[in-house]
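[recover] target loaded
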């Protein structure tokens, strides 16, 4: 689950779960400006590298992205540029040297629609221990999925299409997705242990 893919394994039309955490589990984001800076660069580079952000969540000490590679350029180039830019910003702001991230980001290719659904739910459930209600967490694409905020960063259409009813109403798809996330089951804890073993 937590292995990195060589660039040759990134294919046009492929879906990828990208995740990483701060070195020694330290925080990657220390104030709101840090979160905004990361999201701003993500917004800028996704178009330059022709990727779509299907879902994301920025936690204080780790990040999760679900992305689609739309062109021939490996999606890894997008993540490398994003993290290089954020590292330069972070080190300059806090007068640090070295890498705030724990090594190279991890990648998991996502092959099935059903897994995309569950993975998006896992990503959106990440803040459940930080906030009383996950729609209130600002650094996630979940509020956009359920229509509580406008978001020009996350492409919610692909996954919400899986939740559309026969009448095809977006409102119904959002409601169904919200209910799907609420179900939770044990999926969150199971996949969390696979991605970041032994992390409390």
């Amino acid at each position: 689950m937590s292995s990195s893919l060589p660039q040759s394994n990134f294919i046009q039309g492929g879906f990828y779960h990208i995740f990483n955490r701060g070195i020694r589990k330290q925080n990657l984001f220390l104030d709101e400006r840090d979160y905004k800076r990361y999201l701003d660069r993500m917004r800028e580079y996704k178009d330059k590298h022709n990727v779509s952000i299907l879902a994301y969540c920025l936690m204080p000490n780790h990040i999760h992205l679900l992305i689609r590679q739309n062109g021939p350029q490996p999606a890894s180039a997008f993540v490398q540029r994003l993290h290089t830019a954020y590292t330069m910003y972070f080190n300059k702001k806090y007068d640090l040297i070295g890498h705030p991230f724990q090594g190279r980001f991890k990648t998991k290719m996502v092959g099935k629609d059903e897994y995309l659904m569950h993975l998006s739910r896992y990503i959106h459930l990440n803040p459940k221990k930080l906030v009383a209600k996950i729609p209130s967490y600002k650094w996630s694409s979940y509020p956009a999925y359920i229509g509580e905020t406008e978001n020009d960063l996350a492409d919610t259409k692909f996954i919400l299409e899986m939740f559309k009813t026969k009448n095809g109403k977006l409102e119904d798809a959002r409601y169904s997705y919200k209910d799907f996330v609420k179900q939770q089951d044990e999926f969150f804890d199971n996949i969390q242990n696979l991605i970041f073993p032994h992390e409390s």
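[recover] notes: The radius of gyration is 16 Å.
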